[in-house]
Each structure stands twice: as structure tokens, then as C-alpha cells.
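Hi U.,

Before I forget, here's the chain from the pilot set. I'm dumping it here mostly so it's searchable later in email.
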Amino acid sequence: MFIRKFVAALILIFFFIGARAQSCEMHNNFFKPGEQITYKIYYHWHFVWLESGEVTFSVAEHNYQGIPSYYFTGEGHSYSKYDWFYQVRDTFKAYVDTFGYAPLRFTRYSNEGSNHVNNDNLFDNVHHKVFCFSRDKDKNYKRDSVKIPDCTFDPLSGIYFTRSLDFSKAKVNDTIPITLYLDNHVYHIHIRYLGREVEETKFGKFRCNKLSVSLISGTIFKQGEEMTVWVTDDNNRLPIFIEAPIIIGSVRVELLSFSNLRNPMDAKVK
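Structure:
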């Protein structure tokens, strides 16, 4: 079960990275359609690191109801060797207006063992509402609506919005408030900037911005704990490592592969 919850938390993490949220509009010089990034998830338990699953994020172009849009996807799965114990297959999708960068629709499809979640969220940015349509495994439908403040993103649109934001003027221990909509709830959370470090990866060494993220209680994470994230200090602003304590053990996420980046990886140490 921890893989499914961590995939959802991973998407939250990306949203936190660099967000300042004073402006909702974005001038995109940081990603392009065709980009794909994959991460491997490790679980640490009793001094053993287990390769548990992967999550992949991708970008495409789409015409959503006549609106030129970005089409974002996030797909997470457990490795087949663990499927006998608990199979996980999760898919997150989002459509975002390419002109004003307003979220339009966010869907979540989760199949985790015998548990299934089908969640479709439509954004009404004029009236500041999200309409949520849910279906359970017995095909029972439920409709709900949630009032949202300005500059509220779904997790996937938040991932790519935050990559447009600049850390160059950030000071150590600066905290940044963030607003996020997920699963019929609005979250007001903060991140803390921890400075710059050089991190070694399978692709070489990279200059990174280091952040900590306050975790949401009620998940697999302990209330009051914080997650640590390392993000490349260049115009791609890719998270390359993520670490977090959980109720039993800890988890680590590592960059596994990337393709079709818009910009060179200038943060790489030569």
C-alpha cells in the first residue's frame, strides 16, 4: 500500500518545489511537449533498501474542448515481483490552458489490490470552484463541489507551474505558503529553502537547491515530519532525489531516466 500513497505524495512534492504563488500565469521556457521523466521508488526497512516501484511524468499537447492545452500524465506502478502481495497501477491526468495556465481538468484512476478509485475533477476558474465526480468499484456515482481560492492548482498542473519559478534570490530558511487542491480538499502548506548542495547521481554530479516540505497528517507520513527534496539548479529544475520518513521505515526517490528536456542540464558539474 505504501507505494500507492507515496506516488500520490510524490506528486504533491513536485507541486511544492519552488512555488511562490504570487502570480498564477506562467511563461513557459522550462519544459516542452514530448518530455518524459521517470523515477524509481525505494523503501527502507530493517536496514534493507527495496526497489519497490516507479512513477513517470510526461507532457503532451491537446485541444481540450477547443482550448489549446498541455496534457500532463503521472503514472505509478509497483514492480511485478511485488504484485502477488499488493499490485498498484495508478494514473493521474491533467489538462491546463496553455495561454493563462489555468487548470481545466484533473483525473485520478487508482487500482490498488482490491481498492479502486475513479476521480474526475472539473475546474470552474470563473466561480472559483472544483466539481468532483467519483465512481466506486460498484459504479456508484457521487458528485461534490469545493470552493477554491485564487492560484489553486491540481497536483500535476502544479508540478509544471513551479518549474518556471526562480530560486536565485531565495535565502536559507525562507518559507513559502502554497495552495493545492486534491481529493475534494484544499491544502495550505509550506516549504522551506535550505540552500544549495552538489549531489551525485547515476548521470553525474549536479548543483541543486535543497528544500524541506511539511508533510500532511493522515497519510503514511508522521505528523510534524518533513520531506527533503533536491532540485537541479538550472532552467529544467528537475527533482533528482526525494527522501522522507514514514510510519515504518523511510522512502527514497531517485531520477531514473529523462528525455526531450527543453533546456541543457547546465547544473551538471563538469
